[in-house]
Design a protein that fits this description.
41% of the residues lie in helices and 18% in strands. It is α+β, with helices and mostly antiparallel strands. The strands form three sheets. Strands 1, 5, 6, 7, 8, 9, 10, 11 and 12 form a nine-stranded mixed beta sheet that branches. A five-stranded mixed beta sheet has the order 14-13-15-16-17.
């Protein structure tokens, strides 16, 4: 770059950055999510931001176009050396685009160090090279949990997922939400019973999964383009639109299975769905928080059983705020053995962006400080520092104002940062071992002995 050239320091498209009030909100939500994850025994892990490209491409993974490759920029004297070595194939590297494929590689690398079933959580940043638009980012934080077993995994792990989702969103307090549950075997079995060929079922499931986005008539058109007859398409639409109470849907499914040919897979899916629903109820999830929705399929090919999508009621246009499901083949792909798993994912960056825009969430104060000790006179700074430390030791977050400025300006500074209380100590207060405590929200100002200051602040904060 030539001297004097102007540097474009704007944020790259699709790569978010947060102001303090936004970052504090993210950390607050992460604390809630982590606390709930750990209450169910999930343990944290971290996988590299960069994986070998062949690892990320192991299962197709939604198309190579979303993967960011890593190509180091080297000085000229090393570039020729790199060109000769040819960093391709197994040496090519890329940024991870989700947490699940890296989890599979992680388990393969640490198989003999882990205890199964292995329950882990991750709240890392991932990268996708897709087109940036409203609510879609190229860099975003995903909060994932998965339980992975060797050979067999109890369906009660599937039942735990809605309990965890419900607990998180109730704690975040974002309003009414609905966890929609289905089983891919139910859909696959129903399609088979209609005589739809095995090689058509995956594409049919993908079309059905898009019902909410494209509408019923477009679903029918797309099904017919796949060679599905108008009669079959109509039966599929009628099936996925079965809408009633959980028990009524299960009863209708059982009745349907008794009157259709080749329903072994359909019956298995119904049994699994019934087991999961019973577990959800036994875990105390409120009936209003979940339902069976036969249109939920999750477009990713690796889901094989239970699937989930969570919708914020009254704000359905936001899309799913938490989704996931059960898979059988994904994790074992690197080891050549069956390793079933079930997991859910919250795209936290997208969720925060959308909830802020909809006015459902608000940012937090720019600072975590609850108190500012104002600077009345420089010679009292030792007192201010001592008082500040006493408050901190009592668990109160404090900013000490080191800059001397008019008292009104210091109050404005505290208020701008969302600090509620100011501690005022002049020479007379210091001599009497007292302070004035000003509540910037109410305007009230009271005199407090320094020895009682922490207790008084705590009382007023609660």
């Amino acid at each position: 770059m030539a001297k004097g050239d102007k540097i474009n320091f704007s944020t790259p498209s699709g790569f978010p950055e947060f102001l303090p009030s936004e970052k504090r909100l993210e950390l607050h939500l992460l604390d809630i999510i982590r606390r709930v994850f750990e209450s169910y025994g999930f343990t944290p892990i971290e996988t590299p931001a960069v994986e070998r490209l062949e690892v990320l491409q192991a299962k197709g993974n939604q198309g190579d176009n979303i993967i960011y490759g890593i190509d180091p920029i080297l000085p000229p004297n090393r570039q020729a050396e790199r060109d000769r070595s040819g960093e391709t194939g197994s040496e090519a590297r890329a940024l991870k685009f989700d947490q699940t494929v890296p989890l599979a590689a992680y388990i393969a690398r640490h198989l003999n160090e882990l205890t199964f079933p292995f329950a882990r959580y991750q709240t890392d940043v991932v990268f996708r090279g897709e087109r940036a638009k409203d609510g879609r980012f190229r860099q975003f934080r995903q909060c994932d949990i998965d339980v992975v077993a060797r050979r067999e995994l109890s369906l009660l792990y599937d039942a735990q997922m809605p309990a965890i989702i419900a607990e998180i969103f109730e704690a975040i307090n974002i309003g009414d939400f609905l966890i929609r549950i289905n089983n891919r075997k139910v859909l696959t079995g129903f399609f088979k019973s209609l005589g739809i060929a095995e090689n058509q079922i995956k594409s049919c499931i993908g079309i059905v999964d898009a019902l909410e986005k494209i509408g019923e008539s477009k679903v029918k058109q797309d099904l017919e383009k796949e060679g599905i007859s108008a009669e079959q398409s109509q039966k599929i639409i009628e099936f996925i639109k079965i809408d009633s109470s959980v028990d009524d849907v299960l009863d209708k499914l059982k009745h349907l299975a008794q009157n259709l040919p080749e329903t072994e897979q359909l019956s298995l899916g119904i049994t699994e769905l019934e087991t999961v629903i019973a577990g959800v109820r036994n875990l105390g999830v409120a009936e209003k928080r979940f339902c069976i929705d036969l249109s939920i399929a999750r477009g990713l090919d690796y889901y094989t059983g239970t699937v989930y999508e969570t919708t914020l009621l009254g704000h359905e246009a936001l899309g799913s705020i938490c989704s996931g499901g059960r898979y059988e083949e994904l994790v074992g792909v690197f080891l050549g053995e069956k390793m079933p798993g079930v997991g859910i994912s919250i795209g936290l960056t997208r969720l925060i962006s959308r909830l802020l825009k909809a006015g459902i969430l608000s940012t937090l104060a720019p600072t975590p400080a609850q108190v500012m000790v104002v600077n009345m006179q420089e010679d009292l700074m030792p007192t201010y520092l001592k008082v500040s430390q006493n408050l901190r030791q009592a668990g109160i977050n404090v900013i000490t104002n080191f800059d001397k400025r008019p008292l009104g300006k210091q109050f404005q500074l505290a208020d701008k940062q969302g600090i509620q209380f100011c501690v005022i100590i002049g020479s007379e207060e210091a001599a009497a071992q007292k302070s004035s405590l000003k509540d910037l929200k109410t305007g009230e100002q009271v005199e407090v002995l320094l020895e009682n200051l922490a207790e008084e602040v705590r009382r007023r904060l609660t």
